[in-house]
Amino acid sequence: MSELISRLSILERPDTIIKTAWTTKRIGDVAKTQYGLSEPMNQEGKGYKIFRMGEVQGGRLIDTGVMKYADIDQQEFSQYKLQKNDILFNRTNSFELVGKTGLFDLDGDYCFASYLVRLKLDHQTLIPEFLNYLMNSAPFQASVKSKASQSINQANINATILSNEEISFPISLQEQRRIVTTLDEVLGAIAIAKANAEVNLRNTLALFAGELNFLLTSNTASWNEKAISDVCRIINGRAYKQQELLSAGKYPVLRVGNFFTNKHWYYSDLELDDDKYCDGGDLLYAWSASFGPRIWTGGKVIYHYHIWKVIPDVTLIERDFLRWFFEWDVEQIKSAQGTGTTMMHVGKGSMDARVILVPDLATQRRIVTAIQKAERHRDDLMNLYERKLSALEELKQSLLSKAFSGNL
């Protein structure tokens, strides 16, 4: 971090800022746009490697190793073959990822999918590395996203919107290269600092998982083996038809995504059986997508089909002990389903039959207290590292802002 601060201090010296003439143009004035290939894709390795949405990250194209292929002939491939320094714009994805831009700098034969738009630059006017940095800056991202069309799960930015977006840049190619060289050096140092913080985050989670495993699997000889159905009741949520989900109504409908955001709520005016509602403090379990247990902290809602409500038998098991067992058990389910699984799923019958080791209630309370202490320590560390990541991202965007306002 001290090396990073040293590098940044150079940028604060007024004599390092060279003012040169800048110009403002539409992207369509300096680059040709091309939509990607819409041919069917395969995973059998037939044809040419094809980049898709989600593989443009952080300003660079990422070969994830989970590559798909387009089975096309040489003539068609030549129309979509990626060249070094091509820029790819992610035109359709989640709102978070749409608009992300990547510079192609890999070896090998690749084409690109219709989810992406390629930009071919006039290199006598603008260098690709400069435009790549500019298009990943916060102001540019905010501007193009504000023009995106949106559905519930997807946003789209077409090539016409992209072409009409205005950008400012130095007329001098030498000045563009100077800015890129400076950004490469300083943002590279920021990337290393962020990577270290992310490693610390992962290590913190791993340490907590180890503590949880120890507390729930050690000294269990006297514990009673039970089926999940012996210690609690699992209740299915309601399966809604699309027309039953309203934009406003009496009851919010809790879907899995609403555990993480207050956006995109649906509502219902239906009056249902009491067990189809949940309230603050209820133990819930998302059995599809974002898999695992949750303690609901909101008000009265109807819980959706992909969520179970779990009602513990309090004479046998504490709610929080059961919650932490479920948390630990998620990893066991993942292991059983295989490390390559991308979408976790478990049926109610399978969950009812899963085995849990249950100590007496006093022991459960002691274990929960120990887990909660470890959880607080985990959360303190995670907050620390997340603040560092946030500060580094703010620093990155500040540098980009300076770069594209002629002050770097």
Concise account of the structure shown:
This protein is α+β, with helices and mostly antiparallel strands and 408 residues long.
Structure in words:
By secondary structure, this protein is an alpha+beta fold. Helix 1 runs antiparallel to helix 7 and helix 7 runs antiparallel to helix 11. Strands 2-12-8-10-6-5 form a six-stranded mixed sheet. A four-stranded mixed sheet has the order 3-7-4-11, with no helix packed on it. The chain contains eleven helices and 25 strands. A hairpin with a 5-residue loop joins strand 21 (283-286) and strand 22. It has three domains: 1-18 and 172-221 and 360-408; 26-168, Adenine-n6-DNA-methyltransferase TaqI, Chain A, domain 2, CATH 3.90.220.20; 224-358, Adenine-n6-DNA-methyltransferase TaqI, Chain A, domain 2 (Alpha-Beta Complex), CATH 3.90.220.20.
Blueprint (SSEs and pairs):
Blueprint: H1 2-11, E1 22-26, H2 27-30, E2 31-35, E3 41-42, E4 48-51, E5 56-57, E6 59-61, E7 68-70, H3 74-80, E8 87-90, E9 92-93, E10 101-103, E11 110-112, E12 116-121, H4 128-135, H5 138-145, E13 149-150, E14 155-156, H6 159-164, E15 166-170, H7 173-217, E16 224-227, H8 228-231, E17 232-236, E18 251-254, E19 266-268, E20 277-278, E21 283-286, E22 292-295, E23 301-303, E24 307-312, H9 319-337, H10 348-353, E25 355-358, H11 361-403
Parallel strand pairs: 4-11, 6-10, 18-23
Antiparallel strand pairs: 1-15, 2-12, 3-7, 4-7, 5-6, 8-10, 8-12, 9-14, 13-14, 16-25, 17-24, 18-19, 20-23, 21-22, 21-24
Sheet of most strands: 6 strands, mixed
Mean pLDDT reading: 87
Task: Give the helix tally.
Answer: 11
Do you know the CATH topology of the largest domain?
Adenine-n6-DNA-methyltransferase TaqI, Chain A, domain 2
